[in-house]
Amino acid sequence: MKKLLTMKSLPLAISLLFAANVCHAQLSGAAVVAGDTVAPASAVVPPESADNVSAKGFIFPKLGYFDNSGNPAYLNQYNLLDSTSGSNTSNGFIADLDFQLLFKEDGDTLFLEKEGYGENSQRLRLLSSFRPAKFKAYYSTFKTVSGSFDFLYNPDMVVGGTDPRYGDPAQNKVDRSGYVADFTNDSPTVSEYAIRRSTYGGSLLLRPEALTEHGFSAELSADGYTRQGNQVSSYILNEGKQNPSQANPESEQWRGYSNSVDEKDAKLAFNLNWTPDKEWFFNYEFFVDRFTNETLPATFGDVANWSGIPRFFARGTDLLTPLNFVPDSTQYRNALRLSKTFGDTAALSAGASYATLQQDTYSEPQYASGYDDGNTNTGSAYLNGKFNVSQSVGLEAFARYNQRQNNSPYPVENFYEPVSAQRDPRMVMPRIDNYRNIVYGLEAKLYPRVLKTTWSAGWKYESKENELTWGTEPALAPPVTLYGTEYKANEVFIKLVSHPTTGLTLRATPSYLWADETQLATNPSEMFKFKSSAIYTDPEWNELVVTGYYNYSRKLNDSLSFSDYDVAPAGFADPQNQEVENTMQSFGVNFSFVPEEDLKLSLGYDWSQNDLSAYYFSTNRLRFDFPNPGGPNNHPTVPLEFLILDQFNYNVTSQTVSAGIEKKWENYLFSGYYSLMLANGDNGNGLAGVSLPVVDDKTDFRLHTFSLGMDYEFKENMIFRATYIYDRYEDNSYESLTGSRNSLCLGVIFRL
Amino acid sequence: MATLPKWLVVSLAVVVMLFSWQASGETSDDSLPDDDPLSGRTLSKHTRGQECIACHKNMEGSTPSATAHFKQECESCHLESGQTIAELSKAGKTVKLPKVEECKSCHIQSRKLMNWAFSVHAKAGGACTDCHTIHASPVAKGLNLSTRKVDRNSVACLTCHQDVGSQFKMRSHHPVTEGGVSCSGCHDPHGSQTTTLWSKSDKCLTCHQALRGPKVFEHAPVVDDCTNCHSPHGSPNRKLLSVSQPSVCLQCHSVAHGKHGMSTAKGPGTNSGTRSISGTVLRECTNCHGAIHGSQQDPLLRY
User: Fold this and answer.
1) What is the ipTM metric for this complex?
2) CB pairs below 8 Å between A and B: how many?
């Protein structure tokens, strides 16, 4: 029989099919996977005859059934099962096919792999190697409905999500905070929020002999993704924009809607590699990344239509002002890297890159005001050196640099400037003109053979620096923010890897960091970390494997403060420090052993805790409109005062218990698995916690997963597989989110 | 008329094509290279892999890398230079796994491996065979239902990084356990943070381009590092927040009276300090400040 397809034409044919599958995503290329040339191996394989063709792998058709009960929102969020025949996410059948196939001919190979379960979770991979090139491609699609889960926490879905006490305009006419009483959902018929991300790509590695004999290889790769669906978006309108003559405008101020998502991203990369000998490696990369947003954003004009109120906005408001505008953008990057080894004695690695990010589309108000050249530049570099003084002593040094420069227009009249007269939008936050991050350090390694322990001791210095433009009054000023312009920290650490007895490996890494200055409250001014793990294996005793870990970190920052603003004498005074303390711990132990032939058991327990406390500050007025003489909120005789209302505490503990069993009996293989994940704690106790609605005050949920599986090898190369899975999510803070799912899957694995 | 999903049609087409090709001539591939793949190595010529294969028939898996390695001399990786199986057997020892240097003797032109000398895994004493299965790939994923959707790379990572694995079980997580993403999508297992040209946020923005801007009104912690607010592996809080709202926001922000729902009407300057902000406002700051990652239009990040 004449071959319809050859190995070299098959990748092309499949690629075309592959392209057809993702054409809706405007396939523009291929993978992120780096080229991996194995010159000697492929070079020595003798030519095979044209008939020397083989195939390996398996095909696994399967059919599943699922049934949800209660509220499946949590179970669906990353694992949305949708019946194959018609869209039904409550229950139904799912048919699918997995395969892994390897074809060989004349030393060329073609590999295809597909895994998936229903339309919402698929992965396809293709690898083809035929001299003098290697081609890789992949496609995956995954649907997440975490937005639906988030939607259930919307202000109009939660008791306490709105506060009717503020519905009385008379009570709020001064503060204009009555919006808290009402939330308007502009998409009242939408409760399903889902986003499908489809990722695709491919790469072509060229190794023509004319290049490889001089150590060159070239790779062209492209990849991209599409994101399509909708997400929950909520916002609040500035009351100054609403029509002041409208009756009770605050009830229309706080809103939310189903925000369409339709994004496309395509990257193209060209890499040229040069390896003049086994110790040198040079790489040049050119990279372009184009992001396109296909949706038109909702605008103030849409909001006016949704509200149904004639003249919803005040005169002069630009009704083309978008909500959550995401522009198209393009990034270009050039990078150069090299590495050099000097036998086992030393190594060197260096790299540098320069990238530009250009905004390609602009909102109507941006165009109108002349803001039409949004762009940033980033530069990065690193240098690493390593020198082994002897077989038992090594030294290493490294430095890394990142910079980001904002070159976007500034100021832009009537749009974006540190103005003295209040208008919106105006600049109330500092503009980050330039951001620099420098890290360097040293590390010494000791390998004292007698102690069977590797010791490393090191020091690291990190600085972050911002060049900022602060607005002129009224605007935010440094003393009334917890935002510094510099972060400078030193860190010392020790790393230990020890093999005290046969089969036992211990790792421990204590470190201590101190910072003279910090930029953000999340930066530590002082931090102690301890990371450790242990692995013990004893093949002689039931093939025992025990692994464990314990991690601890305690982070403090008390270096940032808020200052009051006094009016007589005018100036900043009385700084009050924020004190953030964050302690995180995690611990886990896992056992795996084989008590008898064909029986495997595993048991695991993980525990983690995150404990954060900080002061809860309030101010008597907006921080950015002090004292604003002559302005709309002018209270030149009223000082700006910060007050510590309370010290809140976030403390949540998570635990997971799991157990598994696998038993082989004649032609059968049975497996069982159970896991329980639970988390509980306070999201913010004290004054903040007391104020919160029940669903937000506490974390208290658990997830059970129970599964059974069976393989039956009823013929050589044919295995029947059955699996049953039961999932249950229980939420004690938000009880109506409790739900469960049963799913059964049957299939036959055909080995080739 | 109902139509089959596009992915199913294409998948079936691929399989049909493969079968049509396969039926045209399937033979086995037992050939071995004639010449020495690693010049300069002393190999025991009497075995040249044939004796090994006689017993280890199933060592060739169904992946390209398995095929490539199967074509090598077994001794080149599994015996010390000049050593023979007979000597090893006599000494009651088992064959060794190849060291990193031995793997690199073939994998010399790999961009992935150019910074291996400085990689975290190299410093931790890791070997290629700790993560890579050189010969066989599993016929199908085993019956371990806890990792049934996890991609193969991530299974290898989670074998050692169990503390991270426990985070993927949390209520909000990157979907590694569901097969949506892979550890290697964010992490370079052959490199380190000292040999990267990415800034702290760049890596996140390779998938979340919609957040990269350029933005007119930026949120400083976003420019600095996404992990200021997010735990990328997993968190008990929604949206991967390392600390839930409002606590995550209150670390840096004071809450102004008047604009955030006080219990009674008050004018500026009457800061009694006893009145709490409405819980409705506190529960999720992003319910109003929805453009928390930066805005093109609103300086207060509300839309």
Assistant:
1) 0.90
2) 571
